[in-house]
Design goal:
This protein has helices spanning 2-89, 91-99, 102-122. Helices cover 92% and strands 0% of the residues. It is mainly α. The protein contains three helices and no strands. The termini are far apart.
Length: 128
């Protein structure tokens, strides 16, 4: 009878030990799982902060490049405008350039020749 009672008590003790061990394992597994989730959340947060930092830096760089491009375009437009105004008001320079083209050189030579021929024709004959 003592043996039977001892076996039952050992059996109950073994069950309690197994249950306590199982509860301890579940608790450790839950802690490990929670720690894994915390690590993943921390890595995600660090990645998001790093990405945001890169986006801000790239945005600033892009804005600077756009501003530089806009300033260079304004300067170029002003230079073209100055050149156009200069050509508009310096008619002699433009006329000289136009007059040196072959078509206008021929036209000028023809006009001069016609003028000389007309002048010669209008002159009174000189008596000899």
């Amino acid at each position: 009878m003592k043996k039977l009672v001892a076996d039952e008590l050992d059996h109950a003790s073994n069950l309690r030990a197994a249950a306590a061990d199982s509860i301890g394992r579940r608790s450790r597994n839950a802690e490990d799982y929670d720690q894994t989730l915390r690590n993943m959340a921390q890595q995600s947060l660090q990645s998001a902060v790093s990405l945001q930092s890169r986006i801000v830096n790239d945005s600033v760089d892009h804005k600077t490049r756009l501003q530089h491009y806009a300033e260079s375009e304004v300067a170029r437009t002003v230079r073209h405008s100055d050149l156009a105004i200069d050509r508009q008001w310096n008619v002699d320079e433009v006329a000289e350039l136009v007059a040196k083209t072959p078509v206008f050189l021929d036209a000028i030579a023809g006009a001069v020749a016609a003028g000389v021929a007309k002048a010669v024709a209008e002159q009174k004959p000189v008596a000899k």
